[in-house]
């Protein structure tokens, strides 16, 4: 195995001496340099592309690729085997983060274990694909490239298909945090070109082809770009270019990649410590700082002019202490323990990796991800395995259903199709609901949304309880009413339907009028569909339901 640590260290020393663009976090004179390609002198100990490709000097592929990552050593480490180039980092860049975000899911940057078997990888010798694949409305989960500073680059579209750069989700450097508190870009990190220079790539796509900045190494503009922002030149062969508008990075994969569950497979796993939260409406991130040892962090935001913040500290043994300073002046503290999660966060893990779902309690949750960074086993198809037959019969209640107690939605008729606004193809908002005709003696309401999947597997998409008897409706993206339990993916709140496979699928929303408040565990995460139904089955005065449908596009 080729080890480039010492080579990278030498490059880093050269950069420190020659490139004034390298700066400490919080330097306002430098942190303002965003999304612009600069003329930066090429370090003297890094060979130019022309020299690399000439007949007199030819570097092996691993050493050539290592040149791009070398300016960020020793924080970023690289190595290679016979087939793949590996990039290790803690997932935190040297530049500042998060400032400027106006659509914030309350996630914050945490160090990530992208090391060893969990490192990022791409092929040393990329192979042109027989059928190149676009990223538009594809590969919406997980990374599509790895930046020279060791930060993953995700599809410019978020997992709902929206372009993150256009809706306030990204900071001044083109990044934000996923559901595992993992920082990543959704736009080309053009600011890195002030460090690596024009002659080196700012990133590598996961198919193995380099991504250069806005110009060729000689400063000339790229010409004859294909739909993926790529082309071939005599000096560099095929490579991509970044851009200041969509697709920002590689618009697809010219090279071979394996796609599984809407992402390049395999991918590393991020390590989250807490559940994903809701978007904080009206919040704007105004500041972010961290300590040199990256153990203490502080994020500042404002909501309608009122300041708030999140302070969090690594207290050892995989634990993080969080202090939440809310805009209303209240504070609370929580201590969380590290747990393995996919990039972008997610619920209970199965085998395969997926990208983040960037929503909170009322938004979609992540799909399971592949563990580690090992190549997948040989298989004849990239389709995920079918659900195993559930050996335990699902819990199905048959409560009173008088017909006088009725459930409706202003967004969909009974038996109607969910609009993208309320499913996993769109914003993933929870449905507005209203009910009438609750029986006398009702003390509270409970709600369950479920779907019986193939294999006799009951999946829950929404659980609520302790809804006051005085409440007769829930607004879209409801907050502050009742209590929320976990979906079948383990995330608290509404899980927008996004079932795979062809054909129409039906989901049932049940509302129950209860004669008493249910006795349930203190932890909301412990109140699954089955726990809730078991607790309320003997106190249901009446019930109503609304059926909705979803069909996966294409």
Explain the overall architecture.
- With 554 residues, the protein is mainly β.
- The protein has 2 domains: 2-264, no CATH class; 406-551, Alpha-Beta Complex (Phosphatidylethanolamine-binding Protein).
- It is built from 6 helices and 32 strands.
- The protein has helices at 5-18, 28-31, 49-53, 61-69, 193-196, 529-536; strands spanning 2-3, 77-80, 84-88, 120-123, 128-134, 143-147, 152-154, 175-177, 183-185, 203-205, 210-212, 230-233, 237-241, 252-255, 259-260, 263-264, 270-272, 283-290, 296-303, 306-316, 319-325, 331-337, 339-341, 406-408, 416-417, 433-436, 444-453, 457-468, 473-474, 483-484, 504-514, 540-551.
- The protein has a 6-stranded mixed β-sheet, with no helix packed on it. A 6-stranded mixed β-sheet has the order 25-32-31-27-28-30, covered by helices on one side.
- A hairpin with a 3-residue loop joins strand 27 (444-453) and strand 28.
- The longest helix is centred in the N-terminal third of the chain and has 14 residues, at 5-18.
- The chain starts with a strand and ends with a strand.
- Mean pLDDT is 81; it is low at 4-57 and 340-391.
Output the keywords.
554 residues; mainly beta; Phosphatidylethanolamine-binding Protein; 2 domains; 6-stranded mixed β-sheet; 6 helices
Q: How would the blueprint of this fold be written?
A:
Layout: E1 2-3, H1 5-18, H2 28-31, H3 49-53, H4 61-69, E2 77-80, E3 84-88, E4 120-123, E5 128-134, E6 143-147, E7 152-154, E8 175-177, E9 183-185, H5 193-196, E10 203-205, E11 210-212, E12 230-233, E13 237-241, E14 252-255, E15 259-260, E16 263-264, E17 270-272, E18 283-290, E19 296-303, E20 306-316, E21 319-325, E22 331-337, E23 339-341, E24 406-408, E25 416-417, E26 433-436, E27 444-453, E28 457-468, E29 473-474, E30 483-484, E31 504-514, H6 529-536, E32 540-551
Parallel strand pairs: 11-13, 25-32
Antiparallel strand pairs: 1-2, 2-3, 3-4, 5-14, 6-7, 6-10, 8-9, 10-11, 12-13, 15-16, 17-23, 18-19, 19-20, 20-21, 21-22, 24-26, 26-29, 27-28, 27-31, 28-30, 31-32
């Amino acid at each position: 195995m080729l080890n480039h640590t010492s080579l990278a260290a030498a490059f880093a020393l050269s950069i420190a001496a020659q490139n004034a663009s390298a700066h400490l976090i919080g330097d306002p004179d430098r942190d303002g340099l965003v999304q612009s390609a600069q003329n930066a002198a090429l370090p003297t100990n890094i060979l130019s592309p022309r020299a690399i490709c000439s007949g007199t000097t030819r570097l092996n592929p691993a050493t050539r690729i290592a040149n791009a990552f070398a300016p960020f050593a020793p924080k970023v480490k690289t190595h290679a085997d016979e087939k793949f180039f590996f990039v290790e980092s803690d997932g935190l860049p040297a530049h500042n983060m998060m400032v400027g975000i106006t659509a914030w899911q309350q996630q914050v940057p945490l160090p990530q274990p992208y090391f060893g078997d969990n490192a990022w990888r791409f092929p040393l010798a990329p192979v042109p694909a027989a059928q190149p694949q676009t990223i538009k409305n594809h590969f919406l989960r997980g990374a599509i490239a790895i930046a020279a500073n060791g930060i993953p680059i995700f599809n410019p579209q978020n997992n709902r298909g929206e372009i993150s750069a256009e809706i306030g989700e990204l900071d001044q450097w083109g990044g934000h945090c996923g559901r595992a508190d993992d920082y990543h870009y959704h736009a080309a990190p053009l600011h890195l070109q002030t460090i690596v220079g024009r002659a080196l790539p700012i990133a590598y796509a996961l198919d193995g082809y380099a991504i250069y900045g806005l110009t060729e190494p000689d400063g000339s503009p790229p010409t004859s770009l294909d739909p993926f922002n790529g082309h071939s030149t005599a000096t560099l062969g095929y490579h991509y270019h970044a851009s200041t508008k969509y697709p920002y990075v590689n618009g697809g994969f010219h090279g071979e990649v394996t796609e599984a569950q809407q992402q390049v497979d395999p991918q590393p796993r991020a390590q989250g410590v807490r559940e994903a939260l809701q978007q904080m409406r009206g919040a704007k991130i105004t500041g972010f700082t961290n300590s040199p040892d990256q153990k203490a962090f502080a994020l500042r935001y404002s909501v309608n002019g009122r300041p708030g913040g999140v302070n969090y500290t690594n207290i050892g043994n995989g634990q993080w202490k969080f202090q939440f300073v809310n805009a209303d002046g209240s504070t609370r503290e929580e201590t969380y323990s590290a747990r393995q999660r996919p990039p972008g966060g997610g619920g209970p893990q199965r085998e395969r990796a997926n990208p983040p779902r960037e929503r909170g309690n009322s938004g979609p949750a992540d799909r399971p991800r592949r563990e580690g960074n090992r190549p997948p086993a040989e298989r004849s198809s990239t389709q995920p395995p079918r659900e195993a037959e559930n050996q335990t019969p699902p819990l199905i209640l048959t409560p009173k259903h008088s017909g006088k107690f009725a459930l409706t939605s202003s967004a969909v008729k009974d038996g109607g199709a969910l609009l993208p606004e309320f499913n996993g193809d769109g914003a993933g908002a929870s449905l507005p609901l209203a009910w009438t005709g609750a029986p006398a003696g009702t003390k509270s309401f409970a709600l369950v949304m479920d779907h019986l999947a193939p294999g006799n597997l009951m999946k829950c998409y929404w659980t609520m309880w302790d809804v006051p008897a005085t409440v007769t409706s829930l607004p879209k993206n409801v907050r502050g009413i009742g209590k929320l339990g976990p979906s079948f993916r383990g995330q608290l709140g509404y899980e927008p339907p996004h079932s795979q496979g062809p054909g129409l699928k039906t989901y049932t929303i049940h509302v129950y009028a209860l004669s008493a408040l249910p006795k349930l565990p203190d932890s909301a995460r412990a109140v699954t569909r089955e726990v809730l139904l078991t607790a309320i089955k003997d106190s249901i005065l009446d019930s109503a339901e609304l059926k909705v449908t979803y069909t996966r596009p294409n």
